[in-house]
Amino acid sequence: MVIFRRVLSVAAAAAALLPLAPGTAEAASRTARFATFNASLNRNVEGQLVSDLSTPDNTQVKVIAEIIQRARPDVLLINEFDYDAAGAAIRLFQDNYLSIGQGGARPITYRYRYTAPSNTGIASGFDLNNNGSVVTTPGAPGYGDDAFGFGAFPGQFGMAVYSRYPIDLSGVRTFQKFLWKDMPGAVLPDDPATPEPADWYSPEELQVFRLSSKSHWDLPVRVGHRTVHFLVSHPTPPTFDGAEDRNGRRNHDEIRLWADYTHPGRGGYIYDDRGRRGGLRPGEPFVIAGDQNADPHDGDSYQDAIHQLLDHPAIDGGFAPSSGGATEAAALQGGANATHKGDPKYDTADFADTAPGNLRADYVLPAKRLRVAGGGVFWPVSSDPLSRLTGVFPFPSSDHRLVWLDVRQ
What we know:
It is a single chain. The protein has helices spanning about 50-55, 60-70, 90-100, 145, 205, 245-260, 305-310, 325-335, and strands at about 1-5, 30-40, 75-80, 110-115, 160-165, 175, 215-225, 225-230, 285-290, 360-365, 370-375, 405-409. With about 400 residues, it is of the alpha+beta class. Strands 1-4-5-3-2-12-11 form a 7-stranded mixed β-sheet, covered by helices on one side. A 5-stranded mixed β-sheet has the order 6-7-8-9-10, with no helix packed on it. Mean pLDDT is about 95; it is low at about 1-30. One of its GO terms (molecular function) is exonuclease activity. It comes from Nonomuraea turkmeniaca. Pfam families: Exo_endo_phos.
């Protein structure tokens, strides 16, 4: 893992059209803004993100930085941020983009930053897509399908966390190597061509197959005098497979890991990358964040996967961040959006209009013991000058939107 500490500059007031930033004097002293943003800071070639961040003039990165500067989260998860072992990318994004005001927004500085390895693009040595060949050369056709998590090279589509508050490094837990087979009642995929159940993966493959397509991290963040566990992940999309639904089932159980981890009495089977067992201690405050790739009503999720969190007895799933831009986009784009069951104002991702349409894919979900003070989705309507930051396909930033929640202890 790679950790960085820097001197924190005073956060400025929140930008227009957004609620009051928790870091301002007028905000409640123990209110913190947690956010998740699938920022599409992934590249097709290893090392390209570091190259793009090495100068302050990459157009897409400038837009991503401006969105963050206008939303001004205190603790931020970025999904699809390519991992590099030296930690160059996470540092350069701060130094060359977040620390420089973009498009009239004020700079924002995060003193604490965290990144760690991702399962994406790590060769498994097995034929995980069962197409008759094992691909172990990064970037070669089919390599991503045989990797532990889809990726053209190790670390593609990784994760990064930026925080204004200290991260308790001694308490960090990562679950990158937890094996799917070790989850009791795992919904392992079945090969429909054979009579045996749950046999898409061979016994040898199950001995090494990791549940997390990227990783799951428990980052204890010190907010005032209390610690809030920031539980972050990025489950695989429940698509790009066949009748066995291997990705849909994996998505379900990746989401389930946090459901069990935060449910007293259900997390005893979970072990982290240091070999420590057990879930979160009862009563510990937490915030779950990430691109869960699962909508409550629409899309291709397996067995209502996200309801494992939304209906969880310890999680406050009652407040759903929304935006006017999402409602407008669904109406203008039509297609699959016209047949959706869910209210489009809660959508957080602008996907293809043919299928699956726009969905609520990104979540910030607090423990019930934390009080929700507000939240939203950065998706301005087209008449808003800031809509230039989200735009329409091909997007100037990402097909996902930044989602935030303000919580009080």
